[in-house]
Task: structure prediction
Amino acid sequence: MGNQLRTIRRIGLTWLATLSLAITVQAQTAEQLRQLENLTPAQRAAILEALDGEQQTSDPPLESPEVVGPRVINQKPYVSTATEEGRGISGISGLEAPAEAEVAGPELKPFGYDLFAGEPTTFAPATDIPIPVDYVIGPGDTIEVQLFGSENAQYNLVVTREGMLNFPELGPISVVGLTFSDLRQSIQQRVSEQMLGVSASISMGPLRSIRIFLLGDVYRPGSFTVSSLSTTTNALFVGGGINEIGSLRNVQLRRNGNLVSTLDLYDLLLRGDTSGDARLQPGDVIFIPPVGKRVGVDGEVRRPAIYELKSEHQVADVLELAGGILATAYPKASQIERINADRERTVIDVDLTSATGLSMPVNANDTIRIYSVAEKREDIVFLVGHVIRSGAFQWRTGMR
Result:
């Protein structure tokens, strides 16, 4: 019996080896398949083992490189202290509420800084970005020119340091300062005028890289090499973003010592407006000053957070930043927690259903609290016990 089992097992292994080899060499010729059938079981097993080892030592599949990793916070963030009715922003003012008034609850966090939650793992310039028609040509850019018609040729021309494009058929052409649209139109016109019967197709090849500076309250200040298509926000992502002590509403782009533009990231975060995201030039400096006046909004609003103020001066302006009041809010009993001129904490009652309450001015480090409606129910009768449908029912006059 033992010999029969061993024989059956050997036949099964031989059949599996033959099947695996047949699948592996299914693209081979009929002569090679006949040679395979003439092999002994031991030879087939050796070939199968060699093929299995070759498959295990093959190159692993290509994976996309990780370009953004988890960010390591290297500065102590603001810590807000929750008070007896909700949450506070005492981490901003540096003053803490009494310990007996603290309750457990989520903390208010500065708005917008989670946009830079990841840390870049590579600083290589981007090369796969579509070229806009208003892109300005500069030294180091490559222009791809294809001639067709009575003459066929293809050139990859690099803009020299002097801003010239050395065209073999037309001679040097000054292109520095031209937009890509103007460059394409100019070269096509010169080719059609000076080369009879020839047309030109113009496209951009590899783009130049530029060096810019990130300074101020950024996560990773220093000098960076970015693509010539990069904008202010692209550079901020390369540098890891803005620290929580830096301003999101006063991102300054400086060129040759002069302030060129100011970017308000709230326009991007709240309204999707990228009109202020200027394109960078070599040697530009992006400077992040310290954060400005802040006000916290807590309670029954869509986005409870700590907001940096710029042109907002009234309660209504701050509520707009927070997305507005929820339907579960009771705006008549709202409050503003404030530190007065004597450095004492005080509370101001505000009726947010009135124009006077909405137009009340806000100060730095204020906390606007919007409380919810009471849990008490009115005009309700509860039915419990052994009934088919127990629960709450509307009360009406004369109900029995």
